[in-house]
Design goal:
This protein is mostly beta strands and about 300 residues long. It is built from 1 helix and 23 strands.
């Protein structure tokens, strides 16, 4: 039987009696030395490229396996507990691996002095892994303010940031450092009168250093004459701030202030005097504050 493929060779030289249709058996028409040389060469090829060897050539299916004697793709490289593939471009920066489809470039992996990059096809986006940053590329070059992250129907999910979010510019004035929202679960008496308030609803939203705060609560029935102080703000104000009273059962003119460097608010009459707790006995308030904080 003709042996036309490497997979049909034998690692034992004496078993290689045919190559193609040429008889290599002992006492054939070929000189003995030539016979033996060809048969030995066939055995070496089998040892180098046959099943169970580091480099396996599957001529039947046009596949090559490195460290794999049963490759399922055109090239399959396996390594146990070690680096599988090293690709080294010497001397200059540029593309190290080029990806093609039907002979046309569709992407590349490469290096430049400022980092490793992954590029898409012509006119498409890429990324560069710089020192301390991942930066955009377009059409095979570094780019600025030209690439979107996601699209209207191809969105990312959550974005976790530990620093600032810069919108519309790169200066400190464009940096949004914080966003937080939550509900108010408790308020307390800061006047020393030992009051317990009824809390109906409270919530806040902090964007940068601006806090919007809403609170619906009621004073208890009390005869305490201490000047009212309600401890309730989620962040200390940077300066005094006035609030808006949207609803109250108090029957006279009244205002409310947020006090700087503390998370307290106080109610005042229109003459600017602080009101005692007993004058606010059983009074309900729905108030809103928008104020600046250093927190």
């Amino acid at each position: 039987m003709a042996k036309d493929k490497l997979t049909e060779y034998d690692a034992t030289a004496a078993n290689n009696t045919v190559v193609g249709d040429v008889n290599l058996a002992e006492n054939s028409a070929l000189p003995s030395d030539m016979n033996n040389a060809v048969r030995e060469l066939m055995s070496h090829q089998k040892e180098a490229f046959g099943s169970g060897t580091p480099l396996y050539v599957d001529q039947t299916n046009n596949r090559v396996g490195v460290g794999n004697s049963a490759p399922s793709t055109a090239l399959e490289v396996d390594a146990d507990g070690a680096t599988v593939l090293t690709v080294d471009r010497a001397t200059s920066h540029g593309d190290i691996v080029e990806v093609q489809k039907d002979g046309t470039r569709f992407g590349a992996l490469g290096s430049q002095s400022s980092g490793f990059y992954i590029d898409g096809e012509s006119g498409h986006e890429g990324i560069r892994f710089a020192n301390g940053a991942i930066t955009p590329r377009e059409n095979g070059s570094d780019s600025d303010n030209a690439s979107d992250l996601g699209a209207s129907n191809n969105r990312f999910k959550d974005l976790y940031l530990g620093g600032n979010l810069y919108i519309g510019g790169t200066g400190s004035a464009n940096g949004l450092s914080d966003y937080e929202e939550g509900t108010v679960t408790s308020i307390s008496d800061g006047s020393g009168g030992g009051l317990t308030y009824s809390l109906y609803h409270g919530r806040y939203r902090k964007i940068g250093d601006i806090v919007n705060y809403e609170l619906d609560f009621q004073f208890p029935i009390t005869s305490d004459t201490s000047q009212n102080t309600v401890t309730c703000l989620p962040f200390n104000p940077a300066v005094h701030g006035s609030g808006t009273i949207g609803y109250t059962t108090y029957n006279a003119g009244i205002s409310v202030l947020a006090l700087d460097t503390s998370n307290n608010i106080k109610f005042y009459n229109l003459a600017g005097s602080g009101l005692a707790n007993n004058s606010l006995s059983n009074v309900r308030f729905l108030i809103n504050f928008t104020y600046q904080t250093n927190a």
